[in-house]
Write a structure and sequence with these properties.
Layout: E1 12-15, H1 19-29, E2 34-38, H2 41-45, H3 48-57, E3 62-66, H4 75-88, E4 92-97, H5 99-114, E5 123-124, E6 134-138, E7 150-155, E8 160-165, E9 173-176, H6 186-205, H7 211-233, H8 238-258, H9 262-274, H10 278-293, H11 297-309, H12 317-330, H13 347-354, H14 369-381
Parallel strand pairs: 1-9, 2-3, 2-4, 4-6, 5-8, 6-9
Antiparallel strand pairs: 7-8
Helix pairs in contact: 4-5, 6-7, 6-8, 6-10, 7-8, 9-10, 9-13, 10-12, 10-14, 11-12, 13-14
Bound molecules: nicotinamide-adenine-dinucleotide (NAD) and fe (ii) ion (FE2).
Fe (ii) ion is lined by residues 143, 195, 198-199, 264, 278, 282.
Length: 382
């Protein structure tokens, strides 16, 4: 393996209340004329895409909109959004939402300049040209998709999620304004917050972790420990929401560069196969995958370090895993994969597909198929 590490983040990011207006001002300073907003029906319903439309129109841009992105966005969403972009000759893409809206927008922006189909870009750095500029306005905390070089698109026919990992899909501007998150319901706050925690932990035990990603991951865990329960209880708590914006972005800095592990490799299959929410799948799988990862001595030590960042007195891997289960219970995450409707007869294909997912490559242990099935079984029966 090469000893060179890269570090990739968007060139510009804004945080804090008012970040959305700051981003609109930034767009105005560039020579864009025609924006396309990529969002989903939920965001349209709460009026957030309308608000951004007005901010952009007030600054002299024309605005087209595609607001039909589904959770776990699929090829059909990419094709439909790209059609609207082409019809309007858009020169800048603005995504508003959680990971689904951003991932759809990234795929659309990439195809707008590179052509072809999104499946052509599965894998690492398969595109030749920069995507159209993308300003990603985040509303969940979160996937960190507003700042990563990952885009995850479901192939609805094959029932699998494709991972496109490409520097060219990194957004030009990432926006984390807590005021866009005050209305995020508790269940979504929990699921997306535990997704961020999974990013921190998988990046911290990743074989590609570096001192920089370690710092990001541990600080992210500290902030999540401090604020996720509060954001869950009281969605309009400004401090808790602001902390979670920073936490999810730090988590993104960590996994965008150290990558992930078997939690995400398996969760992607559950999303593709049963359309289950990404954060919930991660939360359920996280303690089980780490209990298998504990068998690696170095990872055991790292998991023990995490315990104190999660507020545990005892610095042990067991304490971390117990805390992760408690986190799930406190935030009303379903107990196991059985409750999520996963079927025993699918274990084999889920494990096979997880082993094809690029995210597992940096897991501290490369498991055999039987071991992946054993993890799924443990998370099913727990
Ligand atoms: N590209 C990446 O780096 C990356 C990383 C992790 C996950 N993902 C992907 O992200 C997707 C999941 O994204 P997500 O968990 O952010 O959820 P999501 O984007 O699918 O949104 C879930 C629901 O929450 C609603 N919502 C979002 N923000 C809201 C707000 N502020 N108020 C009220 N409702 C709101 C949406 O309308 C939607 O109905 C999955 O497809 C996953 O694979 C991508
Ligand atoms: Fe994730």
């Amino acid at each position: 393996m090469s000893s060179v590490t890269g570090f990739f983040i968007p060139p510009v990011s804004y945080f804090g209340e008012g970040a959305l207006i700051e981003a609109a001002n930034y767009i105005q300073t560039k020579d864009f004329k025609k924006a396309i907003i990529i969002t989903d029906p939920g965001i349209a319903r709460i009026g957030l895409s309308g608000k951004v439309t007005k901010l952009l129109e007030d600054r002299g841009l024309s605005v087209a909109i595609y607001d039909q992105t589904q959770p776990n966005p699929n090829i059909g969403n990419v094709t439909a959004g790209l059609k609207v972009l082409k019809e309007n000759n858009s020169d800048i893409v603005v995504s508003i939402g959680g990971g689904s809206a951003h991932d759809n927008a990234k795929a659309i922006a990439l195809l707008a300049t590179n052509g072809g189909e999104i499946g052509d870009y599965e894998g690492v750095n398969q595109s030749k040209l920069p995507a159209l500029p993308l300003v990603a306005v985040n509303t969940t905390a979160g996937t960190a998709s507003e700042m990563t070089r990952f885009t995850i698109i479901s192939n609805e026919e094959k029932k699998v999620k494709m991972a496109i990992i490409d520097n060219n899909v990194t957004p030009s501007v990432a926006v984390n304004d807590p005021s866009a998150m005050y209305g995020l319901p508790p269940a979504l706050t929990a699921a997306t917050g535990l997704d961020a925690l999974t990013h921190c932990i998988e990046a911290y035990v990743s074989t590609a972790a570096s001192p920089i990603t370690d710092c990001c991951a541990l600080k992210g865990i500290d902030l999540i420990e401090e604020s996720l329960a509060e954001a869950y209880k009281n969605g309009s708590d400004k401090k808790a929401r602001t902390d979670m914006c920073y936490a999810e972005y730090l988590a993104g800095m960590a996994f965008n560069n150290a990558s992930l592990g078997y939690v995400h490799a398996i969760a992607h299959q559950l999303g593709g196969f049963y359309h289950l929410p990404h954060g919930v799948c991660n939360a359920v799988l996280l303690p089980h995958v780490q209990s298998f990862n504990m068998k690696c001595e170095k990872t055991n030590k790292r998991l023990a370090e995490i315990a104190t960042h999660l507020g545990e007195k005892e610095a042990s891997a067991d304490a971390t895993i117990a805390r992760l289960h408690r986190f799930n219970r406190d935030l009303n995450i379903p107990r196991n994969l059985k409750e999520l409707g996963v079927k025993e007869e699918d274990f084999e294909i889920l494990a096979e597909n997880a082993m094809q997912d690029a995210c597992h490559l940096t897991n501290p242990i490369q498991f055999k198929k039987e071991e992946v099935i054993a993890i799924i079984r443990q998370a099913f029966e727990y």
